[in-house]
Structures are given as C-alpha cells and as structure tokens.
Fold:
Amino acid sequence: MTLLQVLALLVMAPLVQGVLASMRARLSGRPGPPFVQPYRDLAKFLRKAPRAGRAGSSLGFAAAGFALGTSVTILILLPHILGDSVRTTVLDVVALVFLFALGRAAMVLAALDSNSAFSAMAVGREIAFAAIVEAPFLLALLAARSTPSSALLAGSALFIILLFESARVPVDNQETHYELTMIHEGMLLEYAGPVFAAWQYSAQLRQVAMLVLVAFVLAGSGLPMALCLVAAVAAIPFVEAFQAKMRLFDVPQLATAATLLAVAALGIDIIGGLR
Amino acid sequence: MRGVRLLASSLLAVVAAAAIACAARPFAPFIVRSPIFARYLTLDFVATPLARPFLAFLAIGVIVVAIWNLKRGRAGAGIPLACFSAAMLGVLLAQSIFTFLLSWELMSLISIAVVATESERKSVRRATFAYALVSQLGALAMTISFAMLAVHAGSGSFAALAAAAPSLAPALRAGVLAGFFIGFGSKAGLVPLQFWLPRAHPAAPANASALLSGVMIEIALYALALGTFVLVAPVGAVAGIILLVAGLAGALFGGLYAAVESELKRLLAFSSIEHMGVMVSALGLAIAASALGFPALATVAFLAMLFHALNHTVLKTLLFLAAGTVVERMHHVTDLDRLRGLASGALKRSAPWILVGCLAAAALPPSNAFISEWLVFQGFIGATLSGNASLASVGLLGLFALLLGGGLAAAAFVKLFGIAFAGDPAPAQERETPEAFDAATIALAVAATLVLVLGIFPLLALHPLLALAAGIVGTRASSLDTMLASSVRLAWLAAIPVLVALGAWWYGRRVAERSDPVWACGSVLPARASYSATALTKPLRRIFAFALFPERRRSIDAATSIDFPTQIAYAVKTHDLTSEAARSVAAFAQRFVRRLRVVQSGRMRAYIAYAAIAVALALVLGR
Structure:
C-alpha cells in the first residue's frame, strides 16, 4: 500500500506542478503551458550538461541527491490516502517536520556553496521564513485529530505553510526570475542540467507531500481525503491568480496567522481532551 | 614543549579515567571527618545513581579535549584544565554540603582564572568580571539555601537532607528552591541570568570553552536535578513550571541570538544557552509531571534531559575545539564575515567532522541531538495530550517555543557552515600549508563519530539512561519501551538521503566540470564581494526587530564627492534586554556601594568600634 502510494506520488508530482501552472495561467487570461510541461522540462534538464555550484566541489551534487532522498523519505512517511483507519496509523509528525528541515538545510548549504551573492540573498530569506513556520507546521499536524473545527483551523494553517513550502504567490513567485525578489529559484541560480532536475523534482515531491498533509489534516482518510486533496490543488491557482505577491517583510504576518490558527486548533483539541 | 603537552593531556586522561571508574562501579563512601564541627565540616564522596551519567559525560568531554590538546592550544593550558575537571568531578561526587560548596567554588574559581587567560584584551577582562560577579552571587544564593537546609535537617550530609526534605515547610522549601535556581541556574545560563555566558565562554581559549560549554553547564544541570529530585524532594508542580518556562525562554533567547550572531565562538555560546534551555525545560516538565501524577511522562522528560545532556557534551566539545582549530589556522580570525571556504582551504581535514557537529547542533537527523530533541518533543506532546489543564497549556507553550528556538538554531548552524566552510576559499588561504591529519583532527573525528554512533544506535545510551531515569523519577512503563523502539527507527530516516547523496557525489566526481563565473548581472565579482554572515541574517534581524533592537552604524568617508566615497564603514549591533538590565543593576550597585564606603574611614578606632559592636550583637542575638 505504502509502496503503491509512493510510486503514484513520484509519478504524479510533476503533473501536479503542471496543473497548477496551467490553471494559474488560464485564470489570469493566458493560454499557459500544457499539463505535462514539467515532465518535458525535467527531460530537457536531464539531457543538458550538469552544472552544480562551483567547479571542483562535489558538494552541490551530493546535496542535490541528499535533498531528493529526504523528499522520497517524506513520501514514505505520509499517511495513506485511500486506506482505511489512517488516523490510527503511527504518523511521526516530529520526524516529518525535521525531514522537511533536513532537505531544506541541504539546499541552503548547496546554495551557499555556489558562491553566488543572489543565492545567498535568497538563503537569507529562506532560513528566516523557515525558522518562523516550523512551529505552526508541527502544531497544525498535531492538531489533526479530533473535532471538525480544529481540523478546519489546522488545515488552513497548513495551507498557508504549503504556500511557504512550495514557493507560491503571496510568499514567492515561481514565474519570475528577478534576482532581488526570488527565494526558491534564487537558491538554484548556479545549478543546471541533471542536478537542477533533481532540485526541481525534489521540490515537486515536497509540494505533493504538503498537499497530502493538508488533505490529511482536513479529512483524515479515504474518499474525503482524496476530495480535499483535489480541492487544495484547485485552491492554489486561485490564490496565485487573485493575490499580489506580498512585500517581503509583510510575509512574517502570514506566518503569524498560520501560528495563531495552529495554536487555536491545538487549543480546541486540548480543551476537548481535558479531564 | 612536547613533554608539557603530554603531561597536560595525561593529567586530563587521569581525571577522565577516575570519572569513568566512579561511573562504572559503585564504591564505598569516601569520608574525611574534620576534628571540629564534624557534623558539618566533613568531606564525603560517593557516586550516586543521579551522578553516574554525568560522570560519564564529564569523562567523554575531558577525553576529547585531552586528545585535541596533544596538538593544539597552549602547551601548558591542559594543566589548569585538569584541575578544573577534577573540581567538576568533586562536585559530582560530593555528598555533603561542605564538600559540594568546596568543590563548586573550586570549579568556579578555576574556571574564572581560565576565562581570564588572555587578560591582556579588554573584552576578556570585562567578561571575566561579569562571570566572577554572577558566579559569586550565585554561590551566595546557594550557600544561603544550603544553610537553611542544614539547619532544618541538623546535619550537612545529603542523605540526611534528603531524609528530612519531606517535612520542609512550604515557605522554606520555596526559599531554598529560589536560592538553588539562582545559584545553579546562573551557572547553567538560565534566562535571565545568562548574560555573562555569551561573553565568558568565548573569552576563554578554545579547549577551556569546550569544557565550560560542553561539561560545566551540564554539571549545573546535575545540580538542578540534584536539588529538585533529591535534596528538596518532592518539589511542587509550580516550581517545575517555573523552571520549564525559564528553560523555554533560554531556548528562544539562545536560538534567536545564535541566529544573528556573526562571531564564531559567541554563536556557539548562544547555542549552548539554547540547548541548555531545552534540557532545563525537560527537567521542569519532569518535575511538573511527577508532581501532578504522570510518572511515565516524567520519566520520558527526565530521560530526554539526560540524553540531550550527553549529546550536548559531545557536540559542543566538538564545535568549540573546531573553533580552536579555526583560531589557530586562521590567525585569530573568528568573524564569520571574514571566513569563507574553509572546507576547501585551511580546514580541509576537519571540515567533514565539523559538518557533523553543525548537523547535531541544529538537531537534524541522523545526529544524536535529533533523537534527544525528538524525545523532548514526545514529552511535550504527551503533556499536551495528558488531559491535565496546566500540563497541557505548558505543553503547548513548550512545543511552540522549542520549535521556534530550534528553527532559529538550525538557521544559525546552516549559516555557520554555509558561510565559513562552503564556497571558494579566500586567496590568502591558498598560501597556508595544507591541514594535516593530526591529533586535533582525530579529536574532532572521535567526537563526530560519537555523534553519529549515538544518532544511529541511540539504544546504546538510552537503555542505561532509562534505567537510571526510571529509578529516580518514576516508573518504567511499557509505553516507554515502544517509544524507545520507534526512536531506533528514526535513525534510519537519513538512510535513503545518504545513499542517494553518495550516488550523486560519485556521479559528480565522474562528469567533467566546467568552471564558469557565477552570475552577477554580467559582471565578475571579486572574492571580497562574497556574501557575509551579517547580510545573510538581515531578514531575521528585521523580523525579530522587536526583540533584537538592531542598530545600524554607517559612516561614509566622502573625501571629495558624496557620489564617490573613498571608504564606507558599516556596523550592525543588536541589544539584549537582560544585558542592559544587568548593566543598570551593576551601575546602581556601584553607586550604592560608593555611598557605603563612608564606613571604611581608614581610622583604626572606627574598626575597633565595629568589632566591639559585632561581638556585642553576637552575644545578644546568639543568646
């Protein structure tokens, strides 16, 4: 079951990315790329010559592999979408949060190793935002237990964290390449070829994992969870198309909102569980 | 020179061996009775179950320092360090108030002397003064507490104090605990008594910093556990929650300041405050949980504290010694803004081990600190789910603070390695002789191996520690065994990443690499234009401006034209409230003391009068 789901997610991750890009473009009145564009992009990157940070250092290669490995491990730890009694399976949320952090640490080190000041600028933003969304991330996952109200609050918190994690619009913009504002793309500026493909693919896997987690927190398991997954995918392009990118130093307010939602969700759980 | 090094390291090794011997097998109490006041002035040493893990931690830290000392550091520096370690050994073995205070003061005084080693620098003199002041005030507070306990029990031995503890009046118990928190907490770097620590620990030479930050604060943790679980037991939930909140404040404070700090050794000292905060909050949780009737939860928290103390000893010894290697190889440059590319330059051999240390300090898998932080989180999650209102609310608070502090600490260590070690080395490093695989590197390798072994096979340490924790605080519930079993699986989380990384590394070595200049909008940047640690943390300083009070000083030497300045100086400073508060308290104290100086008139008659008054008072009051 786990194996099947991991394989399905591994195959579907670029498709989700393609659907998101295409829907966003259509909502803003452009024809947009086809759904399968990310597969074509990955295939193109794989054919090109590798370029990983600075010459003479294999750290960039190793870090890309390491990050890809953490993404795959995250997929293994995810709850089952179509299985039953998911709420009783042991989902080690602490390990999950630390794995996300581990993948990010590999990426940040690789970006700093590439000697690029633009990458370092992006790293500064990435580590600042990562530090402030870590707390709501775990709290929201912990709240994924009891009442519908806490599930809704935790799901909204996790959706905001998804926007951080997968570089979506109010936080970051995947469609621009303007060095002074970008975060995720900025860190990978010095990477090309198969190594770049590894970075992009690993980011797509993390995005799918976050979507599964949002659906899990909202609905728990089975068909409702699958429906929530579709709804979460559909919601992202709307946010991206109708929302302007926030000023960089307004973004922490979004993290504060996520924290408040997560604390409220867990608070409801705690009050419900008092003896 | 070699002889002195060898002597110093063997002295350290002797202390470590003694610590291991005491930890491994119980020995009969070693007692020296004084001819007068035998009830109080007795030297009494024995290794209690609570002290035994800390004896092992002491031994590990001291051994790593001894190996490093064979190659680096001042040749004679090991000898005072051996005395320092012996004093710490004395604290752990002490079983009476007199022995404990004697060893504690020896430990404090030797460490103050060690911090003052480079006293020709003004910053070191100031740090020493702050440390000495806090240390002696703390000693005063704990002496008062011990005096109250001794009067209550009518004896100075710890066994008698523990036996008499249940009958302590609540007010007296609270007073004693307050003294202990001030005395032991100031040594442990608990907020708000931590302001001396980020000054004093980095001011010492690296091998001394390793023992101060890697071992001495764990001794302070032992003293806190001793005070709360033995000498004044049972301690109420309120005291536990106070300790817990102070620990959380430390985790937040340490993480935040480590994240924005640009001086290597100060960053490590702030990280010590963060890790200490994690341990003290776990201790507080253990106290609160056992007072509120959750023995299994208390055992988890206590176990997490013990294991994190072990892990912190290993990782902080490793990182401070690494900082010492940086100091020697880079000619006393420890400013992260001026270090770059050490992993491919001056510290090629040490860098992989330092990366392991940074991973551990950031508590990421597969390091040992990840497992212990995971256990701490299990404790706090258990508290939120316990169904008890006060435990659940501190559990929620704890999860939030530990995650935020931990996230910031992770940012700090990613910054440390990413800025100072990754990237191209500065041209000056090319001229240095390549680093040899010497004793200093071996010391780092030993500590890093220990980090990984404890991270991958945590049960090696967790099983013995669990037996101790269960004996001291609570029960050995079956839920604990399942928790430990799942902690083993955690270690293998990093297995797939490591395998894929090895494959990618091999692929990277195989394919031809081009060397293109990095993208800089079409221009080629010189090496000194590389990004600095201060710039990297600008977003953090801005987000946390409400706590950091960042202050920017920029001076432009405009020479002839404002558009083409000849020189720009730029400095960033952050403030912390506890230091400012301490400074104003010190200023007030100095003004007050200056007034009191009238009594020191310098006339003999006045002093004779004082003595007569003192004797009269003693006669009247002691009647």
In short: Chain A touches chain B through 81 residues (CB under 8 Å). Chain A is about 70% helix and 0% strand. The longest strand of chain A covers residues 51-52. Chain A has one domain: 2-270.
